[in-house]
Amino acid sequence: MLEDMLILGIESSCDETAAAVVKNGREVLSNIISSQIDIHTLYGGVVPEIASRKHIERINYVIEEALCTAGVTLKDIDAISVTYGPGLVGALLVGVNTAKAISYAARKPLVGVHHIEGHIAANYIEHPGLEPPFLCLVVSGGHTHLVQVEAYNDFRIIGYTHDDAAGEAFDKVARAIGLGYPGGPEIDRLAKQGNPYAIGFPRAKVDGHEFDFSFSGLKSAVLNYLNGCSMKGMEVNTADVAASFQQAVIDVLAERAMGAAIKTGRNCIAVAGGVAANSALRAAMEENCSKNGIKLYYPSPVYCTDNAAMIAVQGYYNYLAGKRDGLDLNAIPNLELGL
Ligand code: KG4
Ligand code: ZN
After folding, report:
1. Are 311 and 118 in contact (CB under 8 A)?
2. Is pTM beyond 0.85 here?
3. Would the CA dihedral through 275, 120, 27, 288 be positive or negative?
4. How many CA atoms within 13 Å lie on the side-chain side of 138?
5. Is the C-beta atom of 273 inside 6 A of ligand 1?
6. pLDDT score at 2
7. Quick check: CB of 164 below 6 Å from ligand 1?
8. What pLDDT does residue 1 have?
9. Secondary structure E strands in 3-77
């Protein structure tokens, strides 16, 4: 029998400073997240320079708390895994440099993790039976991808967005209707009071690319609708706008994911990334998957948005695959998936 393996995960790619300890790639012993949302809310979005500085202030405390909550010390840790891209370069560098320092000082192996691969791996935490191959709908603030997960370390992108990511569209529309940052959870809440079919917003297709996405036209349609109302002196029902916009995003995501699963013969879909926390998307995917006999997985909301447990999980599978990084590991802001 193999010995238990403990991975310390570190995540600092955007506006959460996070550290976690995960046992054998599946059992979360601690998951500490220090969110900067309250600071960035003042500016209506993430300010990269502020994000980097806050990561520096918090990262050591977060790591100490992760070890302490897990009831372990650095000595017990088998490897350090860290997000090295994609993300904000200054923010990523804080996590990467901290991980390198710990790896050097404590003589522990260092394993770099792709942030999106981490989001996908978040699905393994609460679903012990989930193993590749499966299709993953990745919907975060910066990415909207349909990914064939062939193995723990083998990813093939079969669909992607040509412009805005789904989460980005949520954030921009939320700002236009006067909601706070991040906009996704606010729209999710407000949409519950609105009619999703009140306003007919477009569901864009990308010519010649059946699994691709485009959300910039939808975002413009919402802005045009709001301008039109203001010019005509009409009062805007923001709950209807939120619900109708959200429905348009969900229809496209669900339709593309189902189409891709059916066409590629996959009977299992996982959803990952911040937008996977959306209650209406989860309900729509449940309904579509059960109609088509497809198994559906998604993480609890805390593992959908940025966290370090998912980085430790993917770090574990990278480690098992023999991946090791040296002290020359660098932050790569536009790191591609599956390379
Ligand atoms: O995965 P994530 O935490 O960070 C990135 O890697 O980008 O995703 C953040 C995105 C934001 O755009 C946020 O508005 C969106 O996820 N989000 C949601 C919800 N919770 C977070 N979007 C829709 N509904 C939600 N409940
Ligand atoms: Zn993320």
Report:
1. yes
2. yes
3. positive
4. 27
5. yes
6. 67
7. no
8. 55
9. 6-11, 16-23, 27-35
Residue 116 Cα: closest atom of ligand 1? 6
Q: Which two tokens stand for residue 237?
A: 């029902």
Residue 314 contacts residue 122 (beta carbons within 8 Å): no
Question: Residue 76: how many CA atoms within 13 Å on its side-chain side?
Answer: 13
Residue-level pLDDT at 143: 95
Low-confidence residues in the chain, pLDDT < 50: none
Residue 86 CB–ligand 1 contact under 6 Å:
no
Instruction: Say if CB 248 and CB 218 are below 8 A apart.
Output: yes
25: left (phi over 0), alpha (psi -120 to 50) or beta: left
Rounded to a whole number of angstroms, the distance between the first and last alpha carbons of the chain is: 32
Q: What is the pLDDT of residue 317?
A: 98
Q: Tell me, using a 6 A CB cutoff, whether residue 275 lines ligand 1.
A: yes
pLDDT for 37: 87
What pLDDT sits at residue 93?
98
CA 72 to ligand 1 centroid distance, Å: 31
Closest CA to 336 of 114, 165, 171: 114
The three-class DSSP label of residue 311 is helix
